Amino acid sequence: MALEAALHSLGVNMVRAMSGEQALAALLKQDFAAVLLDVRMPGMDGFEVAREIRSRARSRFTPILFVTAGDDPDEAMLSAYALGAVDFLAKPLRSEVLKAKVGVFVELYRSKEELRLRERRDFEQRLEAKEERYRALFESIDEGFCVLKLLRGPDGQVRDFRYEEANEAFTMHTGVRDPVGKTARELSPAFQNEGFAVFDRVVRTGEATRFVQEQKTINRWFDIYASRLGGPGSDLVAVLFADITQRLLAEQDMRRLNEELAQANRRKTEFLATLAHELRNPLAPLSNGLHLMRMASTKPELLEKTRQMMERQIQHMVHLVDDLLDVARISTGKVELRRRHVDLREVIATAVETSASLIEAAGHKLDVDVPQQPLPLDADPTRIAQVVSNLLNNAAKYTPEGGRIGLKVRVEAGQAVLSVSDTGIGIAPDAIDKVFEMFAQVPSSAGKPQGGLGIGLSLVQSLVALHGGSVSAASPGSGQGSTFTVRLPLLPSTSEASSRMDTSPGSSHPGQLQVLVVDDNTDAAESLGVLLDIEGHAAHIAHTGAEALQLAQSQPLDVVFLDIGLPDMTGYDVARRMRLLPSMQKTLLVALTGWGTQDDRERTREAGFDRHLTKPAELPAVEELLRAAAQAKSTA
């Protein structure tokens, strides 16, 4: 009590122990700034208590001040200092001395505690700052991140996992909200467990791994990086992942496009080889025909036969070139339809007449079944005839000699349904969807194409689509023939449409016209001049723009066929200068050019041309122009 009273002014918490055992028990519960230890006590003396205090880690460095009332303080003092005492006080004690000595240790303890608290506070602040930086990074990354706790069954196998942490990007990538604290199967009962084995291997081996996984429940693909959190035995897995679905889809599209480009390149190469072959084929008979005409000038029958042969070959070449031009126009969206009200029956008759020679040459039998009533269309008759003719030619080429070809038309739901069937080589099921592709050809039984450029059916599909219709192909299989069906919209009122249908132009012979042909290709100009002379017209020939203008000033002209590409000036310039001449105001100016797009036609129209013909100009088109010019001249 005396010691407590002496130290009361220090403002400390004093704990009283009446024995060594009580002192040691108190030292186990808390730390002390100093211990005032009496040497003589019942049971354990002060030295034994000091030894025990020094043997414990918690109190090893606690200051011990011995107090004693013994007769031989020197011996006790030596023992005390040997046990690590910091001071030895003999009774009776002076309160000022006791207070001063104990106060030193109290202040030292308080300083240490304050330093310890400051260090703890600094540590906690640093830890909080690190936590904030970690959390900011955790939430700012674009990749999804989560910490998983693997949940095992009694057999030790992973049966599920629980989300311990997840960032905001987790929801963005997976669409799952508030996953923390929930298991994968709670969030999705149909969850696929493909990743369980991977996560189990990661925590068992401690080796991080990266893999790509499809999550079928949400139809997405993820690139996943998984690593163990903690040491061996930990079942925590840190997972960083990114949604790569769009990337995989883009890669698939890229592979598909590469395959399509490679296939298109192969088809282009095959097409160029076929084109060279098809264009070379007519050259041999034409060359032979020229020799025959020179050698058989006195044999009219042979000359006529040779002429017919050469005419067929030229028509074949013109047909090939026309197909190529049509492909270019349709591909660029510049094809021009000359629509009018026509009867589909008349168009079919024209197409059958066009294809008759090819069908007869192969020994096929053609059955035509067309309704008796008119089939009015708002269409370009030339293009629809081209569609039907291409289908008939296709059937003739792919049908073995002596086959049957059927052309049937029926009316169905306001549409004309035209089908062309054959008994030919048929189409394999895997080739049905490809027959309308550009440059595609169905091989024969020998594995070889049947000739042509492989663009006929593609043209058919494009031309039918331009008329608001559709075309489809069907076949039971290879060697079992095929059927192509075209659907075209009919005009709603049959009687009204029939009354508005154009009639075929008359065959009256026009009167004589003064016609100027301007072309730097001598053979082309001379041959057209000969045709004009045969038709009874007066033909004049010029090979340059200057010659053409000189002839236009020297005499009146009714029609001028003017090439656009001249050596001294363009046909556009010649046409503009001709229109400045008073005598050329009513002259029919016809442009002759190899270009026939809508832009080309606009340019010729702006230059003063009345009509636009693409080379080689077909004789029926030339005759139609001449008839129109003759009629205009007679009524003037």
From TrEMBL:
Gene3D superfamilies: 1.10.287.130, 3.40.50.2300, Histidine kinase-like ATPase, C-terminal domain, PAS domain. Residues 274-492 form the Histidine kinase domain. This is histidine kinase. Pfam families: HATPase_c (PF02518), HisKA (PF00512), Response_reg (PF00072). It is a multi-pass membrane protein. It comes from Ramlibacter ginsenosidimutans. It is found in: Cell inner membrane. InterPro entries: CheY-like_superfamily (IPR011006), HATPase_C_sf (IPR036890), HATPase_dom (IPR003594), His_kinase_dom (IPR005467), HisK_dim/P_dom (IPR003661), HisK_dim/P_sf (IPR036097), PAS-like_dom_sf (IPR035965), Sig_transdc_His_kin-like_C (IPR004358). Its main location: membrane.
